[in-house]
Amino acid sequence: MKWLCAFVPFLFLAACGGGGSAGGDAAGILDASFNAARIASVQGTINDVLELPDGSLLLAGSTGFVAKLNADGALDPAFATGGIDWTERGTAATRSTVRLAPYPQGAITVLEIHASPCIGGFCNASIGDVVARRMSADGVDDATYGVSGLGTLPAARGSIVVSPDGRVTAFAITPGRYRSFFQVQALDAMGRVDMLFARRAEDAVRSCRGSVLPYDDTEPRSVVATGAGDGILIAASWPNSGLCLVRLDAQGALDSAFAFGGRRGVRFDRLPDPQLPVLAVFARGDGQIAVVMALTVRAPAGSTRVPAVLFFASNGDLASVTSRPDGFPAFMIDVAMQANGKLVSAGFATADGTTPQLWRSMPEANASDGSFGPFGLGYNAIDSGSLMVMPEKVIVDRAGRILVSGSNGATREPAVIRFR
């Protein structure tokens, strides 16, 4: 298997290794049952992976494609054209498929970012339209969704939540020539713009200023959101002020049962850095809420990005803060949470971004998990033989296995690797 891995030119990377168990708590060992597969000569990066009920995988690509793998890692020829949907939608010059989310009755919500070159004026790569569509698990589009099958949120690139009923809500911080501005946009379950829901949600986040945080006339530095039952859980940070944790109900209004009228503020004088951006927010199975913030540490050898993790009780009370957990990769790219509350991070072991690494914490996020990885040190390289995956996204599937997606370090073509 090692020699095979060394010569596969295009890969959704096979796992070449052994040991470990495929139970609900991955041991951090490469999964040898995940066969090598190839996806033509697609250029780009895999941005998201969605596991379907039968164990197959949908992959969202930065060149606008959606691909489907069977549970063993081989392309599903019954999906779209030979396993890949290459269809170009909309009129923008560039398209990147960024999110895949389940929708009731087995359908899938597909989210893309559409952008065009800026002609004069202020230009920024982070500005892009969120374009949503809906398809079946076999890749058949729903023409009744939105307008001619597409729903569009202009300049809404940011943190996106797809609610259980199919609502799409985007929390974006859009750069301007002189200052950035925060906005919320939403599509209802049929792909139509829902301005009332968006206005409620935007007002709810802005109400943190002067309420649970000191008044600050700047916009939030970062906003990250996730689904919380029928509602939405939001973590927003203001530079030099603090973090605000917000919970919305199904209508987009503040959930009065949470914290102080739906909001909980944390002053940055209680945190290790007054400029911490939010990377992720998770609702744990035990009721706790975990907010992962990115702590940048500058050094002569290069800057590192490690987490500061804030744990909140289910009522919004701050329970603990963990800064720079032991053993964490030097530069964090993405983080996921297992059902048992352990954090799994994909990043790089060194600040120069050349050694991709997967790391897992204990549930308290204060130390490495000694049961994880081939050496029991809490980490493993994101590679197979001489082939590396440069990580962009990490997810945990229903069986507790860990999938890291991104690009092949040698060819920069899409790649995904699985650990068990």
Question: What is the topology?
Answer:
Blueprint: H1 2-7, E1 46-51, E2 57-61, E3 66-69, E4 84-85, E5 94-103, E6 107-115, E7 129-135, E8 151-153, E9 159-162, E10 168-174, E11 181-187, H2 195-206, E12 222-228, E13 231-238, E14 242-248, E15 263-267, E16 278-283, E17 289-297, E18 304-312, E19 318-323, E20 331-337, E21 343-348, E22 356-360, E23 379-381, E24 383-384, E25 387-396, E26 402-408, E27 414-419
Task: Give a brief rundown of this model.
By secondary structure, the chain is mainly beta. 4% of the residues lie in helices and 40% in strands. The protein is built from two helices and 27 strands.
Task: Describe the protein in words.
The structure is a single chain. This protein is mainly beta and 420 residues long. It has a domain of 92 residues. The protein is 4% helix and 40% strand. The chain is built from two helices and 27 strands. A four-stranded antiparallel β-sheet has the order 1-2-3-4, with no helix packed on it. It has a four-stranded antiparallel β-sheet with strand order 5-6-7-8, with no helix packed on it. The protein starts with a helix and ends with a strand.
Features:
2 helices, mainly beta, 27 strands, 4-stranded antiparallel sheet, 420 residues, globular
Secondary-structure element sequence? HEEEEEEEEEEEHEEEEEEEEEEEEEEEE
Radius of gyration: 21 Å
Which ranges are low-confidence, i.e. pLDDT below 50, for 5 or more consecutive residues? 1-23, 37-41
Instruction: Determine the structural class based on helices, strands and strand pairing.
Output: mainly beta
Distance between the termini: 17 Å
Biggest sheet overview = 4 strands, antiparallel
Order of strands in the sheet with most strands: 1-2-3-4
Q: What's the pLDDT, averaged over the residues?
A: 85
Estimate the global geometry from the Cα principal axes: globular
Strand content: 35-45%
| Beta strands, count | 27
Number of helices: 2
Helix proportion: under 10%
